Amino acid sequence: MENSSTMSKSAVKISLDLLSNPLCEQDQNFLNMVTALDTAMKRMDAFNQEKVNQIQKTVIEPLKKFGSVFPSLNMAVKRREQALQDYRRLQAKVEKYEEKEKTGPVLAKLHQAREELRPVRDDFEAKNKQLLDEMPRFYNSRLDYFQPSFESLIRAQVVYYSEMHKIFGDLTQQLDQPGCPDEQRERENEARLSELRALSIVADD
């Protein structure tokens, strides 16, 4: 979007520079042409700014908001991974005591390990279930979230290029000389360029 804004601003500057050219004071037809160009460039810049604002509001900002959920999502995944590590560590501790000879002290430690394992296992299972339930919903909701932005982007582009077609169509009608095809203009320009090249001040050394 920056490039688009820069381009339209540059076009306006070119037309303004042409308006300040001394030729505009000397040739009324040239002044009329440059004035028509300046009007068209300003209209183009105005519609371009509207397009940029629309895209910023309906596409860029929603994308940024969508991206802002990823830190929380990543944190939920990390909490689940930490809960899994704690669960595995205590599960391994329980299994170690289960494999030992069932003496009084071992049974006491086994009971204690199982008691420690229970809330950790419940915590892991809750976090794991939450991710299993919500991750598919998050994944599947992307299209529903982005579709309005895509539709708005397309509408903004259609409106902009429709207006550009009208603006430059109007400009063409104002600048076109009846009965003067492009081939004739090219020949006339080449003839003028040849005259300029023939001048001694631009002749090759």
Helical run tally:
7
Helicity range: over 70%
Q: Please tell me how large the radius of gyration is.
A: 36 Å
Let me know the largest β-sheet: none
Beta-strand portion reads: under 5%
Global shape? rod-shaped
Overall pLDDT, averaged? Answer: 85
Got a strand count?
0
Which runs of at least 5 residues are low in confidence (pLDDT < 50)? none
In N-to-C order, the SSE pattern is: HHHHHHH
Distance between the termini: 47 Å
What structural class do helix, strand and pairing data support?
Answer: mainly alpha
Pfam families: BAR
Keywords: Cell cycle, Cell division, Coiled coil, Cytoplasm, Cytoskeleton, Septation
Coiled coil: 73-100
Function: Involved in cytokinesis and septation where it has a role in the localization of F-actin.
